[in-house]
Amino acid sequence: MERLIFEYSRAGRRAHTLPDAPSVDFGWPERQALRLPEVSEIDVVRHYTRLSRQNYGVDNGFYPLGSCTMKYNPKVNEKFAEKFAGRNPQEADSANQDLLSKLYATERMLCQVFGYARFTLQPAAGAHGEFTGLLIIRAYHRDRGDARRTKILVPDAAHGTNPASCTLAGFQQVSIKSLQGGVDIADLKKHLDDTVAGLMLTNPNTLGLFEKNILQIADLVHTAGGLLYYDGANANATMGIAKPAAMGFDVCHINLHKTFSTPHGGGGPGAGPVGVSAALVPYLPCPVLDFAPEDGGHYYFNYALPKSIGQVHSFYGNVGVLLKAYAYLRIQGSAGLKKASALAVLNANYLKARLQKVYDIPYPRYCQHEFVISVQNFKKQYGVTAADIAKRLMDYGYHPPTVYFPLIVPECLMLEPTETEAKEELDAFCDALLQIAEEVRTNPALVKSAPHSTIIGRPDEVRAVKEPDLNYFNSLGVFSAYTR
């Protein structure tokens, strides 16, 4: 196992010596000296270089993760965003007109792509967007004096954040059954009454299937007085092809950190702008970014929204992510976005066609950007689980796909190739999975004990959650290894 930087420490060793600074007494209480490692420059360089080689990123290889994919982000978009890195968000609007113009243009382009009247760029991620959108739905119903609408319907194949967002927004979440990979219309009808505030839906859903009955579903929800919420985590299958507003969705969030150039593996940063129909614009978070054409025109933050749900993020969201999305949108254009979606769908169906000869595809119909395979038969016959196969993939040099999600498919792996992978890479990945399937039949112990090529084999994942130990030092300042 790689040593910590503290383990390289030797008394008196230095990487660099700064010139002596004059001593100034600020009158502050004496503070205990920092316990920092004493290491040479070459120790530091080699240590962090070794660590970087052990990490797996989208620049290293293929990420087959489903639902929240780590797609490749063009470096030109990173460079563009860096040009604004030194801006102070507390500066006056007049000092940031070039930056505000880019944010305003980003919103207008999102409106054009997805069909909405306005977007707020404040939400910091997909789940934050869900929460914001649900607060808008709640504000809409309360403003109309319809406070009895306290339920949000959520399909059982939904993203796991949907029920949590409902609870945080003060709603009661009600699960709707699936039928043949889509919403069970009969079950939906049973739950539609005057207590329903809305329905949250992902289209295509987490099975990678397009909801064929979406227009009927929208009509049923609207007739019952509810609103339709679009979880846009899977918008990279439909952007430039189908607009959620045209499907009947009143509110939506879009994961810029997935669909528009900023992978957020490792927890951040992200951005989940929320778009709304014209009737819901008054409830958007404040401020909104507006343009005043007088005096040559200028961009400004507008706080004059008396029905607003309030601010949901400091300043105007994760601006760096928004700028990358701006660059991506400008470079791609409408034709580029449509092609990206088409390639994402093509790649997913190509993978599915190759793998379905060996792996069980619970929902074999034409998929969109992702699909789900099940290894339930492997588990019954050979004792090999989805987690085993995911870990064995690491020995072939691939990051594991999403496992055990959605919950309605037992022993499942969710695969999403995205639009950026070439056929050669997809073939190599398929070959690895097909070879693993052969290993399951001929040498299941090899798969069940994987991975064999990593620094850490099979850590006790439950214990790691239950008994985390993140301390480097004990109370005496001496390095303390994890010994429990």
Short description:
The chain is an alpha/beta fold and 484 residues long.
- The amount of helix comes to 25-40%
What's the name of the CATH homologous superfamily of the largest domain? Type I PLP-dependent aspartate aminotransferase-like (Major domain)
H/I helix tally: 15
What is the CATH topology assignment of the largest domain? Aspartate Aminotransferase, domain 2
Q: Number of folding domains? A: 2
Q: How many individual β-strands?
A: 14
* Overall pLDDT level: 91
* Protein structure class: alpha/beta
Radius of gyration: 26 Å
Strand-and-helix sequence, N→C?
HHHEHEHEEEHEHEHEHEEEHEHHEEHHH
State the strand order across the main sheet: 1-9-8-7-6-2-3
Q: Which outline best applies?
A: globular
Amount of beta strand: 5-15%
Calculate the terminal CA-CA distance, rounded to whole Å.
Answer: 17 Å
Q: Please outline the major beta sheet.
A: 7 strands, mixed
CATH class of the largest domain: Alpha Beta
